[in-house]
Amino acid sequence: MVEEMGRAGRTTVVLDRDGTLLDFYEMFHRFVLDLHRQEGVVPPPRDEILGFGYWSSITSGALHIGAVRVRDRVDEVAHRYMAHGTLYPGVVPMLSALSGAGVRLALVSSWVGTEATVALLERYAVRPCFGPVLTRDDLEAGDGPVSDADCKTALARRALDGLGHAPDHRLYVVGDTPSDIALGRRLGAVVVGVRTGNGGGLPAEGTPEGPDVLLRSAADLGGLILQAEPVG
After folding, report:
1. Strand arrangement of the beta sheet that strand 133-134 belongs to
2. Are 43 and 80 a contacting pair, CB within 8 Å?
3. C-alpha–C-alpha distance, residues 57 and 193, integer Å
4. Between vectors from CA 1 to CA 15 and to CA 93, what angle results, nearest 5°?
5. Whole-prediction pTM value?
6. What is the pLDDT along the chain (232 residues), one digit of tens a residue?
7. What's CA 105's distance to the chain center, in Å?
């Protein structure tokens, strides 16, 4: 047990939020329905709203609901609808197990919503499991427009500094998108993909574009990390 605690204390995990820990589908669906009500427009079926094509039409700026360009309002999902978000099944005991073993955890998102995210973690009583919880809201003032990749990299490096992560410590980056895989490669981490969120489209593990390990969900992360061999 002492050996396991010592190994875990030399381990750091950077976790993505949306689609990795957080099931945001109900948040997003309610946001879209509310926009349709506001504009007096009949919404499409739920499956269409939650499809990748619908989200792509928002991020491209093409989707309008009535007079509203949805991209201009989409940050409201994170700021105002987090109360409708849920952590995926098994995530709470996983976080408690890792934190209890001495693993250092950070949550990093290139989207907005730090205050709402902290409130969500407090609702599930897992805020003490984390060190830094950082989103785009926490970029330095005056940084100007920053890409999602650059945002997440800057925040992840800040989180690692805040946790006291050292080069000889084991590092995991966990997420559900290719950008999370790219972040992990950039940081020299063990890259863990999850099949939740957008993870159904991730390449197979071990391929150049894929993660090192692909899990059914973040709920399985505790077993992976706590059973890992020490590095070096």
Report:
1. 133-134, 104-108, 11-15, 170-175, 190-194, 213-215
2. no
3. 25
4. 35
5. 0.91
6. 444 444 556 899 999 999 999 999 999 999 999 999 999 999 999 999 998 899 999 999 999 999 999 999 999 999 999 999 999 999 999 999 999 999 999 999 999 999 999 999 999 999 999 999 999 999 976 666 789 999 999 999 999 999 999 999 999 999 999 999 999 999 999 999 999 998 999 999 988 899 999 999 999 999 999 987 443 3
7. 12
Q: State which H helix or E strand residue 87 sits in.
A: strand 86-87
Q: How far apart are CA 62 and CA 57, in angstroms?
A: 5
| Residue 193, H or E segment | strand 190-194
Residue 156, C-beta contacts closer than 8 angstroms, at least 6 positions apart: 14, 106, 108, 173, 183, 187
Residues 6+ apart with CB under 8 A from 20: 174, 175, 176, 180, 194, 196, 197, 199, 218
CA nearest 21: which of 196, 224, 159, 205? 196
H/E segment holding residue 214? strand 213-215
